[in-house]
Amino acid sequence: MVAVIRILGIDPGLRRTGWGLIECRGNTLSYVAAGTVRATLDGEMAHRLVALHEGLTKIVAAFQPDEAAVEQTFVNKDPAGTLKLGQARGIALLVPALAGISVAEYSPNSVKKTVVGAGHAEKAQIRMMVGVLLPKADFDSDDAADALAVAICHAHHRVSLARMKALVG
Fold this sequence. Notes:
Blueprint: E1 4-11, E2 16-25, E3 28-38, H1 45-63, E4 67-71, H2 79-98, E5 102-106, H3 108-115, H4 123-133, H5 142-168
Parallel strand pairs: 1-4, 4-5
Antiparallel strand pairs: 1-2, 2-3
């Protein structure tokens, strides 16, 4: 009998943090749920981070994932923007970790290459391939589609990642 693993993918953002939950049974992937945690733009940064924390905490409590994966932040031309996005990413890493869930991290190019086959795929290509790989998927934003792509990426890499961790010790 093959175990069913629930994987939560998270695409962190300060305005919108996408999340997607899949089940992995051997090589078979199934869609469970997806959505977007939204934080208002007005108000202090701390309040936006609280909104992200509370939203992700509710999702983890409701769906009880076994593993989580978060997309890494890429450094862009705006260092201040990168730093702010890093704070949202910190929340995305913290929430599953506080629940005792292991958290893997993947670069945007790794996610795109795994799901689409090219490391510089466009948003439309990601949405399309997520729909092909998870035909029952229903997502409300590009962020949720990206989060499902992160979960799919982890499903494909989780066994080799576990083997590498075991070798390193």
